[in-house]
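Hi U.,

Before I forget, here's the chain from the pilot set. I'm dumping it here mostly so it's searchable later in email.
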Amino acid sequence: MLDQFQLYINRYNLIAEGDKLILALSGGIDSMVLADLLQKAKVEFVAAHCNFHLRGSESDGDDWFVRKFAEKHGIQCFVKHFETEKYAAKYGISIEMAARDLRYAWFEELQQQLGYDKIVVAHHADDQAETFFINLLRGAGLRGLKGMQPQNGVIIRPLLWASREQIRKYAVENHITWREDHTNVETVYLRNRIRNQLLPVFDELQPEARQGLYKTLEHLASENELYRALLKEKMEQIVVNQDGCQIIDKQYFVNNFQLLFEWLRQFGFNTEQCHFIHEAMNVGIGNHYDSKTHRLVIGRDDLQLSEIKEDTSDEVAIQIGEEEILSPLHLCFSKFEKNADFVIDKSPEVAQLDFDKIQFPLTLRHWQHGDRFHPLGLKGSKLLSDFFVDQKFTEWQKQNVWLLVSADGDILWVVGWRVDDRFKVTKSTKSIFLCRQIQADR
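Structure:
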């Protein structure tokens, strides 16, 4: 088994020379066998043990057992205590999910604090089989059905090739002691029901049924890699980036829900939201849908995705006389006297207005239906919505454009686009009110 262990590590390049490792050591048979194999392979590591306080004295017994093992073998050991049930209740998740979240969050925190390279966990082939059926029952796609990978970021799984039977046989033959978790035989958790009820029936279907499943999982993992590479290539072809917004033509999503889902899932949209968006693409123009971090707007011909800014206020009051930058607009305001050297700046990031024609205080706000202004260079007024059409605004741009408005309601400047002709600088202008848009990364 040691030879297979080392071959698997080399095959996937899981442990490089000089790597500093943290072993997740529960005290159960899997992690104790992994600890023994690492020692025999002369791989140095420290141990990390989680006490979830879910099994009373048994949890404390595991804690003591791991500490004693580490002390006997001269291994540095870190132990963390968790109030798992309180955490699960607080976030409305299962105990199993709570323990998983707490465990991995602490492992990664410890890895960063110590400056170590990788975290070693003892998942094996039977864990893969159980995970496959769990995800199958939950309606997972290729990403879920492929199972766990030998390496995921800093997490490595060097026992993923070994069955539970192989691990137990090795433990007995090498006189390895471990702690039994009585909850493994309970049927409260879905994983245990699959382990103790489904998989034994699966094994009876035909000889080496489980080996066939392991091969299938390898194929799924390989196919998923190809799928992800092709998906990335496709996205690079169809995504247009404009003003911090990702835009994709609707035509790519006609009869192709999966492509829409793959695009949006990475920004926090769930399956149900994606179905709503897919159904509303051609009837919900102007509608928007939010994840925790992003907003998707349905345009006439496309879908527009942008990050939700922290400052989502619809209106910002401006105090004249204070030169400041207002997030998320990054605008700077000042006043100066016009002189003979003055030259009009035609940059769209700058608005130069006749100070004496403006009614203060000013406000920054988003556009509203019915808004009108007098675009610079044109006679008469124009609906702002028509101006947007002329400028080929996307739905996202319309919803995110800001207007500089005077106290009496006149639109002075469509920020970054056009000033109002009535407030432009003329020969008779004495004082100039300067509004300047500053790039956020400066």
